[in-house]
Amino acid sequence: MSRIRQHVRGSRRLATAGAAVTTAALLTAALSPAAHADGRPTRATAVQNAASAILAQARSLGLTSAQDTSVRDVIVDGNGTQHVRYDRTYHQLPVLGGDFVVHLARDGAYRGADRATRTRISVPTTTPKLTAPRAADLAVNALRAANLGEKLRQVKARPELVVDALHGAPKLAWRTNAAGLDSLGNPVARTVLTDARTGAQIDAWDSIETVTGDGKSLYSGTVPMESTQSGSSYQLKDPTRGNTYTGDAEGKTDLCFFGICFSRAPATLFTDADNHWGTGATADRATAAVDAQYGTNETWDYYRYVHGRNGIAGDGKGSYNRVHYGNSYNNAFWDDSCFCMTYGDGDGTTFGPLVALDVAGHEMSHGVTSKTAALTYSGESGGLNEATSDILGTMVEWYANNSSDQGDYLIGEKIVKPGFGKAALRFMDKPSRDGSSADYWSSSVGNLDVHYSSGVANHFAYLLAEGSGAKTINGVDYNSPTSNGSTVTGIGRDKVGKIWYRALTVYMTSSTNYAGARTATLNAAKDLYGAGSAEYNATAAAWSAVNVN
User: Fold this and answer.
1) Going by C-beta distance under 8 Å and a sequence separation of 6 or more, which residues neighbour residue 365?
2) Phi, then psi, of 214 in degrees rounded to 5
3) E strands within 292-431?
4) Which residues contact residue 259 at a Cβ distance below 8 angstroms, ignoring those fewer than 6 apart?
5) pLDDT per position as a tens digit, 307-363
6) Residue 204 near residue 142 (C-beta atoms within 8 A)
7) Which DSSP symbol is given to 353?
8) Between helices 534-545 and 455-466, what is the axis angle to 10°?
């Protein structure tokens, strides 16, 4: 299951120390109310405060006149504390690992910052020795190799010159997105990072992450459906959740390369005459649409009512779903370029339609990650990216409290078929049950596929929620070990979700690794429950139990 990252918004240039800063963001702030009715600063005021702070703190943040910054996300806590997240460029080139979060007191005073890297951002030249066409060729070769020599068609590659500060000393690099169609016409994509001087591959990762009327769903029973009346019929569009809607992809696929689409699979809006959707069977195409829309609704509500986030991007705008995508497509993915969720029907042998509730929560949580920490999809940060979607997608499933799909710590258990050979895609209590995932951290865990290195954080989250040892929850048996032989006492999944969400949105950056995740979650636990609290101590103990010390 996969995700396609998004572009940042709202840039401004960092002037030399002491110079004036004039940006669209600051102009908006100047024209907006300085505070809410309760006295809390507005998001615009937070941006203004942060702009002043980073000018004053430019040296400590490693910012120079050669760099620009752009605001990615803003959070204002209930007590007025502000957190403004930035990306940066160097001579107008994106800096991988250049992101940072500025933390401010209620009155706008600077409290500190979290940086993806503390390395000085500078390269000798921004002129590459390796040409763009050569970088494209190397990325296409890497895409073909990653797909085991399968004959791909309509393969395209789009190189972008960047400064890489994620992999040691900053260097000029080509970030090349390569994409094509496999033999069934389904999309495959890979991002390849290449040294722009030597042509050596620095890193590579998959770019597609691979899981009121009423409706009869495939997996979740009969569920409520908000719809929009249009004449004598109803549209599967929810006006109460940003006009989220679900459409039929009609078995077609996208032909898109790096945000440029030559053709896109449709999302033909589902309509119904009586506002009773689906039959609970795959023969009715609307059944999968019910599952997809229900998953969107529950994910929206979880973030809204548990974390106060108004939609995936935090802006109140709804996404949309496409079901019946491709030909026996064994995947589901979130795509930032269309702000949409896409679901395949599965091949019927290993997977059924991939529209289960925890899959929806998982994939849309990739959208939340891309709008916040933007964890790089490789190495340990890639494992944390996948784990974030597993953890928060699991929280969505528990939040829904659906008797037909009860909460559990299994990932994708509803979509797997006997041919898959396992009861679920992943197991949070003991991730190695899937045969590939890591239970504990080691120095080599970052070399694993991100779906397997995610096991360390998934295991942490389970231990922190439920504790170690054997137990049965909602009829599912679990037995969670610890690396150090300790006994961990859980604090409950609701608190785990809040700690992880705050760590993601306030403290993590694109380069956060497992050691950084420990620090981020401890900071979050301290903010929420206090330093030295039972929750803080349990967070530390759970990380130690998975060998993150």
Assistant:
1) 299, 388, 389, 392, 393, 396
2) -145, 160
3) 320-325, 332-335, 340-344, 410-411, 426-427
4) 7, 337
5) 999 999 999 899 999 999 999 999 999 988 888 999 999 999 999 999 999 999 999
6) yes
7) -
8) 140
Residue whose tokens read 């500060």: 165
Rounded Cα distance between 549 and 546, Å, is 9
Residues 6+ apart with CB under 8 A from 422: 416, 433, 434, 435
Nearest C-alpha neighbor of 10 from the set 44, 56, 59: 44
Phi then psi for residue 152, to 5 deg, are -95, 155
Which regions of 208-299 does DSSP assign to beta strands (E)? 213-216, 222-225, 228-230, 233-235, 237-238, 244-248, 255-257, 260-263, 268-269, 271-272, 276-277
On whether the CB atoms of residues 394 and 428 are closer than 8 A, the answer is: yes
Element (H, E) at 146: helix 132-146
Main-chain phi, psi angles of 356, to 5 degrees? -65, 160
The residue from 451, 459, 466, 535 that is catalytic is 451
Distance between terminal CA atoms of the chain?
A: 30
Question: What is the C-alpha radius of gyration for the chain, rounded to an integer number of angstroms?
Answer: 23
State how far the Cα of 496 lies from the Cα of 502, in Å rounded to an integer: 10
Amino acid at 417: K
**Which residue type occupies 356?**
A
Indicate whether 461 pLDDT > 60.
Answer: yes
Closest CA to 539 of 478, 490, 501, 493: 490
The length of the chain is 549
Residue with tokens 């969505």: 396
- What is the spatial distance between Cα 390 and Cα 382, in angstroms, rounded to a whole number? 12
What are the tokens at 380?
């340990």
Amino acid (1-letter code) at residue 462: Y
**Tokens for 320?**
């949309």
pLDDT digits (tens, 9 = 90+) for 383-424: 999 999 999 999 999 999 999 999 999 999 999 999 999 999
Spatial CA neighbour of 493 closest among 430, 538, 541, 432: 538
Structure tokens at 503: 């760590």
397 is catalytic: no
The answer, as to whether pTM is greater than 0.90, is no
Catalytic residue among 363, 380, 397, 466: 363
Check if 7 is active-site: no
